[in-house]
From TrEMBL:
Domain of life: Eukaryota
PANTHER family with a match to the protein in the record: BASIC BLUE PROTEIN-LIKE, BLUE COPPER PROTEIN
GO CC annotations, alphabetized: plasma membrane
The Phytocyanin domain, residue ranges: 25-125
Gene Ontology molecular-function annotations: electron transfer activity; metal ion binding
Signal peptide stretch: 1-24
PROSITE patterns listed in its UniProt record: PHYTOCYANIN (PS51485)
Matching InterPro entries: Cupredoxin (IPR008972), Phytocyanin-like (IPR039391), Phytocyanin_dom (IPR003245)
Species this protein is from: Gossypium anomalum
Protein name from the UniProt record: Phytocyanin domain-containing protein
Keywords: Copper, Glycoprotein, Metal-binding, Signal
Pfam families on file: Cu_bind_like
Keyword Signal applies: yes
Amino acid sequence: MEGMCKIFFVLIIVLPLIAKQVSATQHAVGGSQGWEESVDLNSWASAQTFKVGDQLVFKYSSGLHSVVELGSETAYKNCDLGTSLDSKNTGNDVVKLNKVGTRYFACGTLGHCDQGMKMKITTVAGNAPSTPASDSDTSAAAFFPRSFPTFLLFSPSLILYFLL
């Protein structure tokens, strides 16, 4: 019985950590159409929730388009590609969203940004809910009453008790 308690306790601690890693999303920029001039990229982006740890995947015809990350909203609005932070051109580029904030992307092909092939995204904290939590929450915290002091679960002495 004591062994089962230890296993259960370890699962309560480990599963939420694993779930956080698994919950990272790869966003195919532009949806099924990809990074293309015909896509309203800002409408697509505004329908997404980008979280720290997620990735943007830019799929496009290499040689026809590229991806340039711009450093400011002014550069984004003016399509000032000369002040880029990064540039990619493989046709299958991945950008990791590693911090909270706003980022700006544009196509580096002459004239494409001016024609609207650009996108502004805002990344939120990885633990920010994309939808409100429901009453049928299945996280480890859902197994305990709301008044249960969950900090007790992670008390070093309690952890040592179950692990030893």
